[in-house]
Write a structure and sequence with these properties.
With about 180 residues, the protein is mostly helical. About 50% of the residues lie in helices and about 5% in strands. α7 packs parallel to α9.
Length: about 180
């Protein structure tokens, strides 16, 4: 639990530094009471009306980590309840969350109730979905070959995060900021 919260504090600090928020100074990697420090951080962010989205991808792997128990999930649930106008969680896994809980301790946590019973499926993009991804290029005068959409789908499988990464790479390359 402590390692997880230390890592969370580290990532929060990085992102707050990226946006120039002075609350980043409140976080360090050698926190004595990391849970209390994180709570105080969200109090400050709430006063500043800053929104925070915590995305936990491959959540099935996180649940299987040794040493993580219901106390951690209860703490995250408490944070979500206390700071509902500031803190949001997005959990991604290949299975329904409650089916991933391997211990009674995990299953009893209120954390799972934050997400509702029915999972939201995020299917891969198709050719029509790519129009919105291509729009900034079109607006900037970039012209793609006729088979560009199909190539995007071939290279990315239509996975949204990969489509976004490829678009970012192409945008940077066309502006001379990156190499292939």
């Amino acid at each position: 639990n402590e390692k997880f919260l230390q890592k969370l504090a580290h990532l929060l600090k990085q992102e707050l530094e990226n946006i120039g928020n002075e609350c980043a100074d409140d976080l360090s990697t050698n926190l004595e009471n990391v849970a209390a420090t994180i709570q105080e951080l969200f109090r400050k962010l709430e006063r500043q009306n800053v929104k925070c989205l915590i995305i936990m991808d491959q959540f099935d792997r996180i649940l299987g980590c040794e040493g993580i128990d219901g106390k951690l999930w209860n703490f995250l649930s408490l944070l979500a309840e206390q700071f509902s106008s500031t803190l949001y969680f997005l959990i991604a896994s290949r299975s329904i969350l409650e089916s991933l809980c391997t211990t009674h301790d995990q299953l009893d946590s209120d954390f799972w109730r934050l997400f509702g019973a029915a999972p939201n499926d995020l299917p891969p993009h198709g050719e029509l979905d790519l129009d919105s991804w291509f729009e900034p290029f079109s607006n900037d005068g970039t012209v793609f070959e006729n088979n560009a959409k199909q190539k995007f789908l071939d290279w990315t499988g239509g996975v949204p995060i990969l489509v976004a990464a490829l678009c970012d790479k192409i945008w940077d390359m066309r502006n001379g900021n990156s190499t292939p």
